Amino acid sequence: MATNSKILFLPTFLATILLSPPLISAQNSNHFSEYIGAQFTGVKFSDVPVNPNVDFHFILGFAIDYTATPTPTNGQFNVFWQSDVLTPAAVASIKQANPNVKVAVSIGGDTVNNSPASFNPTSTDTWVANAVSSLTALIQQYNLDGIDIDYEHFTGDAATFTDCIGQLITTLKNNGVISFASIAPYDDPQVQSYYQALWAQYSDVIDYVNFQFYAYAADTTESQFLSYFDTQTSTYGGKVLASFASASTGGGLSPANGFFDACNTLKSQGKLPGIFVFSADDSKSEGFEYEIQAQALLAGT
């Protein structure tokens, strides 16, 4: 019996290797992203300094398949960012003024009027159909370029989440509606189980992993951050962006406590795919000091 089990192990092991998504090693890039609009501080695209030598993405937070009541709408997405400031005209203006700028929409988010914005489909087919239709209309109205997945609460199972989100991203890309997609997990067992299932099947259509390193403890050290980064890169390959929260109440490794030192270490090792910040709303009162510093680091200036 022992001999037979060893004989059977080899093809099973090979099948596992062959079916697993390939891990791409991290490489340096000049990619910078920033979430904007979720906290209604009146921040405008034009308030944020844009370094012409980076690949700059604004991420509008958020479009959610809920009403304001809040009631889930099964994939029919509505705008929940500060839409009287961050308008279609404002998108056109910032992109015209800065050819290196693209704008994405993040779907999901944490809450709707202080209630969890749960992923709550009635069925895969209807959710995907509604999501493709409503998001295509929204993306075309605002002339957006990409989509970010930031669900943090779930009522459906991981398989349904994988099918719905994977089909959504694939369809929007195949239809030419978007040119890039990102996901925004953080280190929570349930959240990771959903996003790792999605990654396992659809990593080929996911361009960036906006991992929320600011969800770690506020006393995170530089060495801990680098360890966390390596752990997440081992899961999501070379698409993981370093991140910090600009709010004074944010967790993780802050710029004041060594974030940029850690990024310089990653860059010196050739494994800094980019940086993202949450959020422009919080940075407005501080004059975007850390956004300027992050972009300079990425641009090598």
Describe the structure.
The protein is 39% helix and 19% strand. The chain has 301 residues and is α/β, with parallel strands linked by helices. It has one domain: Glycosidases (TIM Barrel, Alpha-Beta Barrel). The strands form three sheets. Strands 1, 2, 3, 4, 8, 10, 11, 12 and 13 form a nine-stranded mixed sheet that branches. Strands 5-6 form a two-stranded antiparallel sheet. Strands 7-9 form a two-stranded parallel ribbon. Pfam families: Glyco_hydro_18 (PF00704). Keywords: Glycosidase, Hydrolase, Signal. Belongs to the glycosyl hydrolase 18 family.
Task: Give the helix/strand layout.
Blueprint: H1 2-19, E1 31-36, E2 55-64, E3 78-79, H2 88-97, E4 101-109, E5 111-112, E6 115-116, E7 118-119, H3 124-142, E8 146-151, E9 153-154, H4 158-174, E10 180-183, H5 189-202, E11 208-209, H6 222-236, E12 242-245, H7 259-268, E13 274-278, H8 280-283, H9 289-299
Parallel strand pairs: 1-2, 1-13, 2-4, 4-8, 7-9, 8-10, 10-11, 12-13
Antiparallel strand pairs: 2-3, 5-6
Helix pairs in contact: 3-4, 4-5, 6-7
Family: Belongs to the glycosyl hydrolase 18 family.
GO molecular function: hydrolase activity, hydrolyzing O-glycosyl compounds
Protein name: Chitinase 2c-like
What portion of the residues fall into strands of 2 or more residues? 15-25%
* Global structural class: alpha/beta
Task: Identify the CATH homologous superfamily.
Answer: Glycosidases
Uncertain regions spanning at least 5 consecutive residues: 1-19
Summarize the amount of helix as a percent range: 25-40%
Radius of gyration: 20 Å
Distance between the termini: 64 Å
Q: How can the largest sheet be summarized? A: 9 strands, mixed
Helical stretch tally: 9
The H-and-E topology, N to C, reads as HEEEHEEEEHEEHEHEHEHEHH
What's the number of structural domains?
A: 1
CATH architecture tag: Alpha-Beta Barrel
Overall pLDDT: 93
> Total strand count, please?
13
Q: What is the CATH class designation?
A: Alpha Beta
The CATH topology is given as TIM Barrel
